[in-house]
Amino acid sequence: MNERSDFEDRLRQARTRQGLDKRPAGRGSLPPGPWGIGLRAGVEVVSALVVGIGFGFVLDRWLGTWPWLFLVFFVLGSASGVLNVYRLFNPRKTPRAN
Amino acid sequence: MAAEGKTIDALSQFELSPVLGVFGDAVSFSQSNLMMLVAVLITFLLMKLTADRGELVPGRLQALGEASYSFIAGMVRDQVGDEGKKYFPFVFSIFMFVLLGNLLGMVPYSFTFTSHIMVTLTLAIVVFLVVTCVALAIHGMHFFTYFFPEGAPKWLAPIIIPVEIISYFSRVVSLSVRLFANMVAGHVMLKVFATFVVLLGGLGAIGPFVAAMPLAVNVVLVGFEFLVAFLQAYVFAILTSIYLHDAVHLH
Asked: Does the keyword Methyltransferase apply (chain A) (predicted)?
């Protein structure tokens, strides 16, 4: 009996590996550790802010509305920085098996 | 090089200079480009030797090639799912290029091409464009619903959509800055402590004993840098596959 369930187990693993069965849902993440998470969160916030400021700057140069769009996109950039950090800890839920 | 005029010159190691004599001068072929070619060549030879022999009991070289292959294949399968198999060559190329760039930088008198923001930014833009094109090819116009999560109140759209778009574009910056900053910081630290060894070593009788301390720090740092070289290549590859997952599955 034991031998048989062992065989079933290995068969299931092999089938999953070859893509014949749906693999269990689940999404890996970056290696944990306080330094890794801290640095990654910092980079995420700063990069969102940089992109926001860049967008505002370019749009202002183009439309001649300095400094209003810059200010708006500064706020939006900080908001998406917070969103990035939120995503870092709560990745988008993905209904894998559909 | 390091301790000229008793100053610490930690940044000159990142300067580009033409190599290969007249030819290098003519087309601005720098040591960075040379290292990129070396990285591509090493990857190619490793894969070729691994695939050519294909022994049942792998030798050292074949084991290395197969380990790197199955490492990335497993990562893509875990992150993207079974649909992700066709993106394996892309992720694998990116991973090997970044990894060899980081590791070649650890060879003395070599050059770390991943320590230039322009190189990492180009890699990140390539990843970004590929991911966006994959998403557009699979989902078509439906892709743009990515920027507005289902179930959010409609009147929040003017706020949510720009925030999501900025967040999407910030991937390029975070991907490139992370790799670039890690490589630059590591190599600057190595250079600074190496300069300390030289400066303290010239302090007369007690010099060699005091200089042993920064030397010990440098020994530790070199080991740490090898860890960072692997880790940053891993992070670059896994983020690429996470973005591919988002592109394939949307939400």
From this structure: no
